[in-house]
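Quick one:
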Amino acid sequence: MDITLIKTFMEVANTGSFVAACDRLYVTQSAVSLRIQRLEDSLGHPLFTRSKAGAVLTPTGEQFERYALSLLKIWEEARQQIAIPEGYTRTLTIGGQYSLWPRLGFRWLDELQMAMPELSLRTELGMPDRIMRLLIEGVVQVALVYTPQLRPGLIVERALEDELVMVASYPDASVSEPDDYVFVEWGPEFTHAHALSLPHLTNSGLTLGLGALAADYIMYRRAKAYLPARSVKRRMDAGNLHLVADAPRFAYPSWVVWRDDLEDDLAEVARKTLLKVVQDAENDMEYLIDQIEEM
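Output:
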């Protein structure tokens, strides 16, 4: 069985669209159609009902999806096991959103290496949809995300309590001035709460969809935006960003998502080391929130 056909099938099934699948796979739509046709010819049954609205799994396609996930998992296990470098006996691949990695991801790697020197580590970074897809396929065994998806075979646990705070590139900025405000997309819950609390800022002339890069944008321009308190502490300590004292704060928790088939002993060590990293990060954030409250 060509594993490329299986991956293509899963992309079409997840997106419900041949067009969206080709964008994710970086191939042409005709290539996606040909791969699905080859898979359907091999199985002797159609897997999708095609229409102008997209592609929907047939009953046979729904049945095959379970086997496709198992095939991808077995393939990834074999690939990772064979690829373990000399001197190591086990491997773990950790995924994460960009903006969570500097504070949690790197420190987690440090703790895991100290706790299990025989463990080979790999990382995958990306947007939530990509990370969740890698989890489902078995490429990643555990991941740090802000917006998890509940799927069979995955366990979602709260990782870090964070807050979104408004910061500016200059001191004494005010929340009442909309001219230099940049709206950063932090998910539908934030968008809704933001609209209720700050209606005069809902129609910002500039919206950034990649929150991980927003801090760099704000720092080098006269601008202000909402960013995770955890991620701006270092820049605030250096004097590159400044809190907007009169701006409301919004809860923004992060989550850790585990595959439920991760070996028990490895999962236990990973949880213990992550807990230590989270506690350190929470101590940093408490210091920052104290500063906010003093202001």
